[in-house]
Write a structure and sequence with these properties.
The protein has 131 residues and is mainly α. The protein has helices spanning 15-33, 39-63, 69-91, 95-129. The protein is globular.
């Protein structure tokens, strides 16, 4: 069983964001089943994807003058800070810490983030794209 089943995550209806979410889910699921030798490189790949994913969302927030930008970008910064802390441990060979982050923290955070912050962003974009 996958850590996150793709069909259990809300599709927000904005292709760029939905594609990023699909890639995030795929990488997270790969990490969950990766051996210790492959884990650090995959963790780095997920970290880089997440940075790029957040950059794209941040650009959309600016482009569409999203009123929740401060809170949303703050959440991005907080999660990237957690990633960096766990990446440091993974790079030191403490794979168990990384696995805990991948299994216990990221799935719950991701589901909540998509259904609240990302869906609100897309609702704003949709409303302001029509005017």
């Amino acid at each position: 069983m996958a850590l996150i089943e793709k069909n259990t995550v809300l599709i927000v209806g904005y292709d760029l964001i939905d594609r990023d979410h699909d890639e995030f889910i795929a990488l997270l699921n790969q990490l969950d089943t990766a051996g210790n030798a492959d884990f650090p490189a995959l963790f780095q790949k997920l970290h880089e994807h997440t940075e790029q994913h957040f950059d794209r969302e941040n650009q959309l927030m600016q482009q569409f003058a999203y009123p929740g930008e401060i809170e949303h970008t703050g959440e991005h910064q907080r999660v990237l800070g957690e990633f960096k802390q766990f990446k440091t441990r993974v790079n030191k060979g403490m794979i168990t810490f990384g696995r805990s982050f991948v299994r216990e923290r990221l799935p719950q955070w991701f589901g909540l983030h998509v259904t609240t912050m990302d869906s609100a962003l897309v609702a704003h974009i949709t409303t302001h794209s029509l005017t």
